[in-house]
C-alpha cells in the first residue's frame, strides 16, 4: 500500500460508507496522515475484521494530523440522491479538518470538486493509499456504531448485524413490519405489494 500519492503535498484521503444501504445515513471521513505514522494493518475497511477496525479507530484518530467525519441522513439522501449525498458527506468531512489539505485522494471514480483544492479519484483507492484506508475505517466504524444505536429503537430489522444493508433478513423484516423513518424512501424497499 502506498503511503502517499504526492509526497510533497498535504494529502487528505476521503472515503464513505453506507452508500448501498436501505436505512440510515451515508457517512464520510477525511484523514491527513503524517509521513511516519507507524499504523500497522491499514487496509480497505472491507478487508479487515470488525474487531481490527475497532482497534484501529482510536489509533488513527490519535496519530492523524487531522480527521473529519460527516453524516448525511436518509431524508437528505432522498432529497438529493445517494451519489450527491456521498459527495456532500465528503465535503463536510473535509470542512471538519483543522488542517487544510493541498490534495484530496478520493476513493472511487467520481467526485464533485471541492473549492480550491485539487483532487484525484482513485478506483479501489482504499486498498492502494493509506490515508484513504484510514478514512474508510473511520467512516465504516462511525456508521456501524450509529446503526447499532438505531438497532435499539427498531430491533426487528437487526441493524446491529446487517447495518442497514439489503440482506435477506432485512428485506424480510421490511415485508413483515414495513418502512421506518430511518429507511431511504428513494431506494427500492422490499415491502408488500398491494
Automatic annotation (TrEMBL):
One of the protein's GO biological processes: DNA replication, removal of RNA primer
A Pfam family per the record: RNase_HII
Location within or outside the cell: Cytoplasm
Catalysed reactions, semicolon-separated: Endonucleolytic cleavage to 5'-phosphomonoester
Annotated Gene Ontology cellular component terms: cytoplasm; ribonuclease H2 complex
Key words, A-Z: Cytoplasm, Endonuclease, Hydrolase, Manganese, Metal-binding, Nuclease
EC number: 3.1.26.4
Cofactor: Mn(2+); Mg(2+)
Annotated a divalent metal cation binding sites: 15-16, 107
UniProt enzyme class: hydrolase
Annotated GO MF terms: manganese ion binding; RNA binding; RNA-DNA hybrid ribonuclease activity
Cofactor note: Manganese or magnesium. Binds 1 divalent metal ion per monomer in the absence of substrate. May bind a second metal ion after substrate binding.
Classification via InterPro entries: RNase_HII (IPR022898), RNase_HII/HIII (IPR001352), RNase_HII/HIII_dom (IPR024567), RNaseH-like_sf (IPR012337), RNaseH_sf (IPR036397)
Superkingdom of origin: Bacteria
RNase H type-2 domain location: 9-194
Functional summary from the UniProt entry: Endonuclease that specifically degrades the RNA of RNA-DNA hybrids.
HAMAP family for this protein: RNase_HII_B (MF_00052_B)
Family matches, as PANTHER family: RIBONUCLEASE H2 SUBUNIT A (PTHR10954), RIBONUCLEASE HII (PTHR10954:SF18)
Family classification: Belongs to the RNase HII family.
Name under which the protein is recorded: Ribonuclease HII
Source taxonomy: Bacteria, Pseudomonadati, Bacteroidota, Flavobacteriia, Flavobacteriales
Amino acid at each position: 500500500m502506498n503511503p502517499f500519492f504526492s509526497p510533497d503535498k498535504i494529502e487528505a484521503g476521503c472515503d464513505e460508507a453506507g452508500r448501498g444501504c436501505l436505512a440510515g445515513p451515508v457517512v464520510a471521513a477525511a484523514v491527513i496522515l503524517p509521513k511516519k505514522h507507524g499504523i500497522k494493518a491499514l487496509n480497505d475497511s472491507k478487508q479487515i475484521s470488525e474487531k481490527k477496525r475497532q482497534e484501529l479507530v482510536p489509533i488513527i484518530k490519535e496519530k492523524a494530523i487531522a480527521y473529519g467525519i460527516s453524516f448525511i441522513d436518509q431524508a437528505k439522501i432522498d432529497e438529493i440522491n445517494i451519489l450527491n449525498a456521498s459527495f456532500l458527506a465528503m465535503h463536510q468531512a473535509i470542512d471538519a479538518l483543522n488542517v487544510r489539505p493541498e490534495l484530496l485522494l478520493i476513493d472511487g471514480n467520481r467526485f464533485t470538486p471541492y473549492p480550491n483544492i485539487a483532487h484525484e479519484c482513485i478506483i479501489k483507492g482504499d486498498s492502494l493509499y493509506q490515508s484513504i484506508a484510514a478514512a474508510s475505517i473511520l467512516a465504516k466504524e462511525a456508521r456501524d456504531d450509529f446503526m447499532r444505536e438505531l438497532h435499539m429503537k427498531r430491533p426487528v430489522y437487526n441493524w446491529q448485524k446487517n447495518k442497514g444493508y439489503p440482506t435477506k433478513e432485512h428485506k424480510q423484516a421490511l415485508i413483515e413490519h414495513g418502512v421506518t423513518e430511518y429507511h431511504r424512501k428513494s431506494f427500492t424497499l422490499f415491502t408488500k405489494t398491494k
